[in-house]
Amino acid sequence: MLQPAVEPGEMLEFEYTLQRVEPQQIDRLEISVVWYTEGKGSEDIGVHHFESVAGPEGLKSGELPLESMLGPRQVVCQLPQGPLSYEGRIIKIRWCARLRLFLRDGREISAEKPFYLGHLTREV
Q1: How far is it, in rounded angstroms, from Cα 1 to Cα 57?
Q2: Per CATH, domain 5-122 is 1.10.510.10
């Protein structure tokens, strides 16, 4: 399946819904849009958009209440000019929307939806 492509400066819109988990099981939810490198050498990661949502017991300043975030919820952010997605032999630059769910029992559930920023450039 081909990943969707979004141009730099455009708005990225996605929606999520939490299923098969009860609100009282959730300690914290993180929603982010990130880029990361894969390949030779150290791997880098850059966080473009980040939201942290906590349950009532763990709510800190700047966090949103969890009950309002269980979904379906739409997330919208404007994408930067770069770095653009890249598929090289030595290094790759990848973008994704990521949801991380931290449960009260210590487990973590993570889901990612990859996308291309710009027209995918491949090394020839």
Answers
A1: 41
A2: no
Q: What are the Cα distances from residue 116, in Å, to 26, 45, 82?
A: 31, 15, 11
User: pTM here?
Assistant: 0.84
Domain chopping of the chain, boundaries:
5-122
The pLDDT tens digits of the residues spanning 93-122 come to 999 999 999 999 999 999 999 999 998 777
Q: What is the pLDDT of residues 32-80, one digit of tens each?
A: 999 999 998 889 999 999 998 876 555 555 555 666 666 788 999 999 9
Asked if omega into 56 is within 30° of 0 (cis), the reply is no
